[in-house]
Fold these 2 entries.
Entry 1:
Amino acid sequence: MQARAMRRRTRVARRTSAATALVLALVGCATDERAAQTSLSGEQVYRETCSACHATGVANAPRLGDRKAWAPLVEEGQAVLTAHAWVGVRAMPPGGGRPDLSLLEFGRAAAYMARAAGERWEDPDAEMLERIREEEEKRVEELRAKKESGTGS
Ligand code: HEC
């Protein structure tokens, strides 16, 4: 019964005018493209940006899928680790060195790498983003205090 219904639907679909189908396809593409431009997935960000260092381990960057390298890092928790990487740590440039990335996109890429190392990190939701921002503030404050005490004045 289901198969027959499907065949019928297919026939109806074939009758739909080609022009309508084309318009729908174009609209679909434009929407996808815009969504991709405003918000990249973790995998996209990783491929376009983070992989430059994290694929091969440039300057000791923890490599994608290297569970051993990531284990002690992910222990810090998603909010802390994402925030510290976002602010920058040693040879890890702030925001991955890509200023047009949003914190959300960066966080997704971090979660993507954590998942590749066997962790169960979800892409950040609103609550997680809030926590990352709090950790970011703390970190910036901490670094500022360090710098000031470092000058010895
Ligand atoms: C220019 C090279 C480079 C690029 C590009 C880069 N990273 Fe890194 N990243 C590093 C290095 C090096 C480290 C290790 C830093 C250390 O602990 O000394 C690191 C560490 C990290 C860490 C662990 C931070 C910690 O507290 O130890 C995370 C998370 C991370 N990167 C995420 C990302 C994400 C997400 C991107 C892409 C948006 C990215 N990185 C792009 C070089 C890079």
Entry 2:
Amino acid sequence: MNERPSQRKALLSSKKRAKPIVSCLACQVIIMKLSSIFEKKEKIFDAWSVKYDEMLAAKKAPISFESYDEVLLAVLEQARVKEGMKVLDIGTGTGNLAALFLSAKCVVWGMDFSTEMIAIAKKKLHTLRTVQANIAENKWPKELNQRFDRIVSSYVLHDFPLDMKRQLIERLVRDYLSENGLIIIADISYPTEIDRSKAQTYWGCLWNTDEYYWAADETNSACQSMGLECIYHQVSSCAGVYVIG
Ligand SMILES: C[S@@+](CC[C@H](N)C(=O)[O-])C[C@H]1O[C@@H](n2cnc3c(N)ncnc32)[C@H](O)[C@@H]1O
């Protein structure tokens, strides 16, 4: 992870900031459809916020949240943070992942599009710096115009198709990650596309076809094409952690 491919240096040194996540025409069509979905999702998350922590504590969350605590701890472990590091948590929700980084004495920004989720996170974590923004928007608020030592995320990015994930990662590296920084993403994920297909067959009609679960082999290829290294750890039967840098 310390050896940087030259392409990553090129990404970091690029002067262009805030390049749209979506650059090709086909993707723009997808994002138009997705933006109406995102508006609905924002409301869904607002409604979910009140019950979110309760549901996790009572182990009543959907199966995709299996081993939730272990998955979040794996993010902290893989991040190998030092006191004072700047961390951005995208899709911070009620702040459960952010809380781990605050306990490790990092300075943490939590970004989310849900007003209600942010309100709960703020109430729980007084030192969390919160920013309300939609990950899919081309422009993020100016508070985020800085470089972070770690950019982390848990259980958020499965709403994005692979190409949007790829473009988001590229944007994060170019515009928001510090030179020796790492991106650590935990989400619903399988080691390979074949494993993901098998899981879909297994779950049948319970599989949510509106979501884009990760497969480590395709993510690896996407990262390689950007000159980024990607290491994957499967943590539960359906969730894993990516370390990208
Ligand atoms: C399942 S929760 C996960 C929250 C937290 N990361 C955790 O692990 O508990 C997903 C969170 O991502 C936020 N989110 C989803 N899509 C988003 C988007 N496009 N922009 C900003 N936040 C988003 C939701 O509002 C919600 O708080």
